[in-house]
Amino acid sequence: MGARKPADLLFASLADASRRQLLTLLNAGAQSAPALARKLNMSRASALGHLDVLREAGWVEVACDEHGEALYSKRSQAEKLFFAECTALQTPAGPEPGDALDAQAAAWAREWPAEDVNVYLIGQRLLRLSAHIDQALKEAAASQGILPAELLLLDALLTSGPPYRQSPTQLQKPLAMTLGGITKCVSRLEQMGLVERTPDPTDGRGILVRMKPQARKILEKILSEATYGTDWVASSHMAPERRATLSSLLRELQLYADAEAARRSGEGE
């Protein structure tokens, strides 16, 4: 356990988007806390707090220049250890020791021996993962001054393909939102100059929502600044073929869930 501690700290310290941004900035060389704070538009105290976490985890080291100002730089040894751990994560290993959820599931199985404990575990793990995904969405949206629902709406317009426009009704399915909620998001994004409403040429009374170039820049900025959430970082640690397998299994599970929801909805009508 003791041998794992340095690597564990390296990974844990990257859970915060601001700390990942600080490390990205330090790729350019040693810099002072005030300079880093200005570039990230945060207070000096906040920058120092994040830098302290990175220093304790082993990511950065600090030295003073000839004027006595503290300069922070990335430790190459930490980066080497980090990438070595990432490589190890892609190597198939033996069975992992059980975690708290496995213990919880074992207790559940004792109470309900006739049920498949994996069905219980799948639900419990998805619940915990959904919390990570929800937090990641909030962090990514907040980094660009928009709300999570607004970020999802922009993503839905982007994935609709050129000319990146949809009717509010078309947006309902990918967003799983009410028309009122979509209208509210569109109004805010329109005020920010990120979308515009235009008449629907196929429906005299309808409108289309079109994503403007400024909105695409926001989506690009989230990726270029590496403001990735915990869920994204966690997925990147998996080998590509395992990610593909997981994606396929989750799709299968979603299809079954969608079909069951549709069946229940039909029974209620």
TrEMBL record:
SMART domains: HTH_ARSR, HTH_MARR. InterPro entries: ArsR-like_HTH, HTH_ArsR_DNA-bd_dom, HTH_MarR-typ, MarR/SlyA-like, WH-like_DNA-bd_sf, WH_DNA-bd_sf. Gene3D superfamilies: Winged helix-like DNA-binding domain superfamily/Winged helix DNA-binding domain. It comes from the Bacteria. Residues 119-255 form the HTH marR-type domain. Transmembrane segments: none annotated. SUPFAM superfamilies: Winged helix' DNA-binding domain. This is ArsR family transcriptional regulator. It comes from Paraburkholderia rhynchosiae.
